[in-house]
């Protein structure tokens, strides 16, 4: 299959942006112990993504590589084990420009302790930080998928949930973490920060009863 070429300057810019955002996310405590992965679309056929197993607190431009939309490495290196969850979003959503995935304390406890297949966030002012949300009077339902470790099967499951109209902004994997996406890295980080904050708030509220 022939892929449309991406520009080197777009790749360099993406690598810089992803390294910076990764260090910022690590600083929030959402990407411990080399976990998590982040990506940016380069064009219709390529994305820049974190290499497997890199310390996100020390992330540099050299820790970013290129994959095609089937998740295969372009050039040297081993991409993140969860690359197919990123490419599923880019293939499915032409306007998706960035994907951020974290392994936070709140998302882990909420999905492990409560067996529900979704988490609902409702009435929070911070929901307005999400793309397309105009009012706090919003109910956001985030699906929770089982952590099957079969990434291709999980990507297919996300696709089916989207067919059913679920997973508009984000989804969770049980005992694992959060995926969220947006048109660009700024909007995606804002959304991630809002969601991680709200998940931590939700956890506190449930603990307080
Ligand atoms: Zn993960």
Automatic annotation (TrEMBL):
Names of the cofactor(s): Zn(2+)
Domain of life: Bacteria
Top EC category: lyase
Gene3D superfamilies from the UniProt entry: Class II aldolase/adducin N-terminal domain
Pathway linked to the protein: Amino-acid biosynthesis; L-methionine biosynthesis via salvage pathway; L-methionine from S-methyl-5-thio-alpha-D-ribose 1-phosphate: step 2/6
Residues that, per the record, bind Zn(2+): 101, 103
Chain ranges of the Class II aldolase/adducin N-terminal domain: 16-203
Co-factor binding comment: Binds 1 zinc ion per subunit.
PANTHER family linked to this entry: METHYLTHIORIBULOSE-1-PHOSPHATE DEHYDRATASE (PTHR10640:SF7)
NCBIfam families found in the cross-reference section: PRK09220.1, salvage_mtnB
Protein name: Methylthioribulose-1-phosphate dehydratase
Gene that encodes it: mtnB
